[in-house]
Amino acid sequence: MWSEVAGLFREYMGTGLMGIWYVLCLVWLWINEKCRPRRILFLYLPLALLFLYFNPLFAGVVYGVVGSEIYYRILWLLPITIVIAYTCACIYGRMAQEKRLRADLFALCAAGLIGISGSYVYSSPLFSRAENIYHVPDAVVEICDAIQVPGREVMAVFPLELVQYVRQYSPVTCMPYGRELTVNKWHYHNPLRDEMEREVIQMETLAPMATLTGCHYVIFRPGQKVRGKPEDYGWERFGEARGYVIYRNTAVELSAPAAGE
Amino acid sequence: MRIVAVQVLILILLLFPVPVAVGGLCARGDSGGSGLAFRWVGGQFLLWAGFQLICVPMILRQRRFSHMAMLFAGYTVLLLLLAAAVELRRRRREGAWSFLPARRAEGGKPGEGVLLWAVFWGLLLFQLVQAVRLAYGDTDDAYYVAVASVAENSDTMYQVLPYTGGGTQLDSRHGLAPFPLWIAFLAKLSGMRVVTVAQVALPVALIAMTYGIYRVFAAELFPASRGQQALFLIFTEILVLFGNYSIYTVENFMIARSRQGKAALGNIVIPFLLLLLLLLLRRLQEKERIPLALYALFGAAALTGCLCSTLGALLVCMAIGLAGLLGAVCYKRPGILPPLIACCLPCVAYAVLYLLFD
Known about the structure:
The complex is a heterodimer of chains A (about 260) and B (about 350). With about 260 residues, chain A is an alpha/beta fold. Chain A has two domains: about 1-125, no CATH class; about 140-250, no CATH class. Chain A is about 50% helix and about 10% strand. Chain A contains ten helices and eight strands. In chain A, strands 3-2-5-8-7 form a five-stranded mixed β-sheet. Chain A has a two-stranded parallel ribbon with strand order 4-6. In chain A, α2 crosses α5 (about 80-100).
């Protein structure tokens, strides 16, 4: 248990450099901070929290209730940002009383050190330029708009890279599988997904599965290789959006509800 | 175009002036905290607390989303009327008729640190522009944003599978922390699409709110120097901007996943709670009476913690419990413990419900 908790702590601290600056700030505050409320909040409280965090009894109880995955969130209670920023501003203030230039130099160095020790938040590969005001791919917007039928839901099967966005944009577009199948550790299995994600889709296998799960539409990713003609299985090419090809599966009935229904 | 402008205007009203106006109710929670930022954040916490109290019972009783939205709108109007009455009484008593919030007398020269303040505002603007310009492909949004989208569209709460659609049994466990439904409420009232509210409007508002809390922190920590306040804020911005040293940090959550309840817990509820604790400890230090409004804010923060995440109940209780105990021991004031325990009671109630549904 202890090694697991310590592992989570290490993962939370990343390279550990920010953790080192935090500890150094705590030491500086321990020596220099005279204001008791700040000592309690910035020194005693984090120490008490860390004691609890590493306490196997406490960890055992919390693990049992909320699970091990989110135990690290207890570390959110450590005011790391506030303490480092406060300490830097305090040291700057002290230095500025004697020599302003030296204080400015300190502030620049401290900012530089933080920059080097951390990692630029926008450098994450998950960030991309938003394609529209909805922050979902244009393809999702265009496909969902194209296939929607006023007054009712439609069932459509999408390539895996789009499933996480579909129902954020269009709650009336249902899917036979969703984001749950993109998380490996959840160990969900769906034969339709397996077929959709094949390098070469076999229409012979896919068509009955799509009909069985009530899919009105099937969306193929750009350049998707398919063995067999979709038209031979009663599918109609409905349209195309950003390279994705939309097929209408006519074996599943799709009628708009009558007015007032 | 005109419709979009009206939608944006309603959303701005709901996210800024309304909480600021409601914040008038708690502006006297601490004499030092009557600034605009404190009113904005405090007001929003009172609204969130009410949302949690109204929403969870209605989810468990499987009521319609629109009924819940109507009730919460009524609660908001009630708080606004109450705040207006309190403000009027206060202004009449003080003989001042300006409706701008009273400015806190801050030390330091008026023009001190102008350059530093410019850097702070520049960095803040950069982050807000990035929140609109950049999309973050987080798969958790497939749950949280979809829950809001579905609620607004189907008029149900936690009764439709968010990932795929189709009816399901009430998801009571997630329903105990219905932060996504607040997003749905904003979308319903403004008429804007849920996904736009969640992915664009909320990150802007919530990132700004986090810095609003840091702004009040700065004023508390450096009351005599505006330059140091600005420097403190710049350092918090740099720490946030370079907070990607691990995917678990609150800074990462703040920039990348601000529309998710857990991000609000880490970046708004916990910093605000720490701020309240600082105000409480300062009062203890100065041997002053603890105003009721401050305890009310503790209660609101506890409820908001539960609104944001089921883990919020534990984190809020830990912070209030440990700091309260330290304060009571260090200042020999055990009298603060009963009201603090009372503030944590909602968390205990939600934790019990969580265990029952687990």
